[in-house]
Batch of 2 targets.
Target 1
Amino acid sequence: MPAVRLSDVAQHAGVSLATASRVLNGSARVPGQVVAEKVRASAAELGYVANAQAQALARSRSGLIGLVVHDIADPYFAAIARTVQQQVFASHSQVLLTQTDRDLDTELRALRSLLSQQVDALVLVGSHRYGGQADAEVTTLLQGFAGRGGAIVGIGQALGAGRAIVPDNASAAEELATSLIVEGHRRFAVVEGIAGIPSAGDRTGGFIRALTQTGIEPELTLRAELTRAGGHDAAGILAAHLADTEPSAPPLCLFAPADVMALGALGELRRLGLDVPGQVAVAGFGGVADGADVHPTLSTVALPLETMAQQAVDWILDPGDAAPDAQVHVRGEVLLRASTDLGGPD
């Protein structure tokens, strides 16, 4: 069945092609309400859909925003993506979403695909550092896009092109550790050594720095992926470590540098029969909404995720006087909840 053309709509509505185009293609010069409604009714009856590529060519913009995240199943990325989608859609633009699973080749393919769709802007969420030639290719792609007038915003780190919204990860994690020490915690397990994710390293580094300043060394350091499954793995390591611990010992406090990992660890610890927080306390980082809904509720550093996403959209839709390489640093709020409560669960 042949596609319905704009000229078919114009003929059906009894108007000129120019009038039909103005009504259906978003022109500021529109005819009277009666004529406009007649054109829209004809378009609906015939099943006409505007040619987005033709519109983009005519307007020199596509109305498409490319959004790149590491993992849409992670509530941290989902919360940011949801706000970006809502705000962009309200502006009559549309989001093209892709995830990379923290794989550089996937990220390169995703960026090339988005650029081939003639997106007007790119928002890249999450920090990464790969190094080598492949990473240079990402930087070259972004710099070339920015050089052609494309808007770029990085949420999580500066990208070498465009603007950036950067959490103060190290200082916030240091504040979290200090708060836990003040609460009475003295035994700590820390997830570290997560390759290619600078934000995780910054958070772990800040947390350990606060411990060291008070004369505390982590009782256990471990490696695991920054995912829900990685949290499961961390819980298994903790369970094995605690097998020889006296039952009356104070709880070992796990710091996971992402809420998704902390939530995975919390759930697995309970499945393994360990008391949280009686035997193992758990603290995360990010401030996802899920942390307030689990039992026991999750202690964390709450980042202003919706505000971060809103800032990205504002820069894309109306950059104002912001410099092309402007950066905004955001602070998180330490939330001590039941998962680290030495008095027991709520």
Target 2
Amino acid sequence: MLRKILFRQFLSNQAGGVIIFAVFGSLVIMTAIAAAVDYSQMVATKTKLQNFSDSAALSATKIASNYMFSHMGDSNAQAAAQQIAETTAIQSVTQNAQIAGISPVPTVTVQYTSTSSISGTVSVSLSYTSNMFIANLLKYSGYPITVKSTATMDEGETYFQIIFIVDISNSMAIGGDPTAISTLEDGSSQCVFACHDPNGYGMSTEACYASGTRKSSSRTWPCDMRTYAKQQGINLKIDYVNQALEEFMESMSEYSSNYPDKISISINTIGTNFNQILSSTTDMTAAINAASSIDVENATQWSNSSNNGISPYDYKDYNYGYTNTSDYLNKSLSLIENIGDGTSPTERKTYVIFLSDGAQDVWDGDTDESNDPDTRHRIVSVDYSDACQSIKQSGIKLFSVWATYYSINDYMINPLLGTGSGSMQGAMQACASDADDFFEADDGPAIQSAITSIFSSIMSDVSLRLIGNNQN
């Protein structure tokens, strides 16, 4: 009897132990499962946060450095760049967190460090406490996650080349800003620029006549109206082009000082003639000097070599000049070598900057004056899109700057005004590699702004990189 009682007590005690063991085992299993789930979630969240941090650092560096590019010499630029970097990084992280459904938004810390007057480094740190299942189970606050990314502008990584193709036809010899335009419109020499006649061949060029005499009897052409404009302090479009390219080269010179072999520059000018005023070089001093020398080409008079209104007429040569856009875009392409991905001197990332009024003006081959007595046998069109396509299809990024043609009463130009296909604007826009690579410049300052923006875009493309990240 006693043995039976003891045996029953033993069985009862064993059942309780099994229950306790089962409960404890279940808790261990549940904790392990929760820990596995939480770990997986934490890794996934940390990966997302690292991506957010990388993206924020890259975008903040790009925008802050672009600001530095456009404010060289400004003593307040670095402080402004810090604020711009912070704003950009926070916006980037907030947007990505909302898209990913991560709440609350991670805490963002941003530090901008200037590495030169035109570049810098941005570090972005994110702090976030993950809401974990096991944290609720074990009554603690959660697992803190910290990630960090650093992006920098560093020209040392990429070989690249920039080719300028600059329209220097007489349409660039017009007022470059509102003051100059008003001066020319109101002055006695107004048509010398509005009519694209820097040599003063036009009959309305008052400066080519002796004071108080009649135009018909006291012709003293040609006048050097280009010099006249400089003497009078009249800024023409070509002056702004000249300044914009010179500033571009100076900025490039500072940026390339540590890596003089990585950046190559060349400059071609187009109009009636084609000139490569600077062949491909890594010498930034030569590039600055070449840019400073850019000027409008000399015009030819409207009639023959004597400009006396009698035959023989040679309108192919005497007609104020042409803009052989398509032929000279193709010629520029034929001179470009070493196009590539930027990994070596023979594989350079390549950029073409095409600046033009947008009108192609060519000889039509007709020498019969009776058929075409007024237009001097010229054809004005926008038929250079194939040449632009050839450049882009060669692996080149093409920027186009449309130095807009002022609205004038000219039956050859009027059909090309407006927007869309068949217009000067539409043609120049179609030339660009991307919508962001097209710039419409209504006056000289807008030309300068466009060239500055292109500098920033190129530098961002070749120099922006993620130099490291730390995951804690």
